[in-house]
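Study the following:
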Amino acid sequence: MIGGQVFTVRDMTALGAGRKRLEFASGEMFTMNRFTVLWGARRIGPRPRGWASR
């Protein structure tokens, strides 16, 4: 959440000097410098249920 709103990252691009640009599904862009700390959480797990028991 940023400012109380949920944002879904669509793409992340590495820029020069350790910067990264995030593009969100809504079209907004956010550029982080190399010292920026960003915490994220997944809304949906990447593995199907029962995957670990296989």
In short: Strands lie at 9-14, 20-24, 29-32.
